[in-house]
Design a protein that fits this description.
With about 375 residues, this protein is α/β, with parallel strands linked by helices. It contains 15 helices and 13 strands. It is globular.
């Protein structure tokens, strides 16, 4: 018998760097490849494109597409995407990011053969903007959700930010992100890689160096700690120079804080830390907390966005208010003084991550959305 032709899934994302949304696209694309003919269209030629090509997944460049608004380039991107949709004729058009969400939803509206799915990794109205800009962006998000067949929210927290608007509750389906199990380095190996002394009380963060990650509050908290510690921040971003200045201007921070920059496969190094700190002001979900779980590393994180859906306060970690250096400091002192009991937090987090946040679970629920089924709980 002839082989059944696979349905085609066209996944589109605005940028091709490698943040959380791009990781989602990569994981989804390679996981769907056995069942669908997967094609990814994106702006730029960044790390996402390299990783997709390494997996043998076909990519289509959207040469004029970028995150910032540019009427001329955005118009060209819209017509280019419309042409791609018409040429590829996908069974599913899966849109990721705010700009490509509204652009793709409109472009696909005239193609009734195509099922349009939008994944909301976050809402752009949460960014630091004026009230009129937030209102305009919120309206565009509402139109995106209404035009798409289904919208996937990566956490209940993300969904809840839109459900006060008409028709949103039934249009948005929560599907938590998931990752495959991995083997972290041993504590000793990870500490050697990061030059952390074996007897140090080690605090760590893996994050983009951006104001929304709340790292300045973490540095303020560290100044008041009454014990010896090391704090390692892994990541790059626009805030690097400012964080360097803050550390250099304080003798205690200069002695104990290390900005390690970008490190490939940083998730294998989280095992170096006695506690993982995520002081974000806003966080739709947080892949890095799943990685901390597989490393059995206790977590202190802010109770924002989707974080409480991963970390259970005083069971698998400690949840604090955002923008509170005082709560960061007191939580770190609690972990320092109760190491045996808090080590259980890491084990409980690992169990929860393995049970609730697997990649296979995420993919199965996403396929159900593609096929118009109700995802299993």
């Amino acid at each position: 018998m002839p082989e059944t032709t696979k349905k085609k899934a066209l996944i589109v994302i605005t940028k091709s760097n490698f943040g959380g949304a791009q990781r989602y696209v990569l994981d989804l694309a390679r996981s769907l490849a056995d069942r669908y003919e997967v094609v990814v269209a994106c702006g730029g030629n960044g790390m996402l494109v390299e990783k997709l090509k390494a997996e043998g997944i076909r990519t289509i460049p959207l040469s004029f597409l970028g995150r910032n608004v540019n009427m001329f380039k955005d118009a060209l991107s819209f017509f280019s995407l419309s042409w791609i949709i018409g040429r590829e004729r996908p069974h599913v058009l899966h849109l990721n990011s705010s700009k490509i969400g509204i652009m793709g939803a409109i472009a696909a509206f005239v193609s009734p053969r195509t099922k349009t799915v939008f994944t909301a990794h976050a809402w752009a109205f949460n960014e630091d903007r004026g009230p009129f800009a937030k209102l305009a962006i919120g309206t565009l998000h509402w139109f995106t959700v209404m035009l798409c067949g289904k919208t996937i929210a990566v956490s209940q927290g993300v969904k809840d930010q839109m459900t006060h608007l008409p028709f949103m509750d039934r249009k948005i389906q929560v599907i938590h992100l998931g990752i495959d199990p991995f083997k972290p380095l041993s504590r000793k190996e990870a500490r050697a890689r990061l030059s952390i002394p074996e007897n140090s009380f080690a605090i760590g963060t893996v994050a983009e160096l951006h104001p929304v990650k709340g790292l300045e509050y973490a540095l303020t908290a560290l100044k008041s700690l009454p014990f010896e510690y090391s704090y390692t921040i892994i990541g790059t971003g626009d805030l690097r120079e400012r964080l360097d200045r803050i550390v250099a201007e304080d003798a205690t921070l200069a002695k104990n804080v290390h900005l390690a920059g970008f490190i490939a496969e940083a998730w294998t190094l989280i095992s170096a830390f006695d506690v993982f700190l995520l002081p974000s002001l806003s966080e739709a979900f947080g892949y890095v907390l799943l990685e901390a779980g597989y490393s059995k590393t206790p977590v202190i994180a802010t109770s924002v966005g989707g974080i409480p859906e991963i970390v259970q306060d005083m069971k698998s970690g400690v949840l604090i208010h955002s923008k509170s250096a005082k709560e960061i400091a007191s939580s770190l002192m609690f972990f320092h003084d109760n190491r045996e009991s808090t080590s259980l937090f890491g084990s409980r987090l690992e169990t929860r991550v393995r049970t609730e946040f697997s990649l296979s679970r995420m993919v199965e629920k996403t396929i159900a959305v593609y096929e118009g089924e109700t995802p299993k709980a």
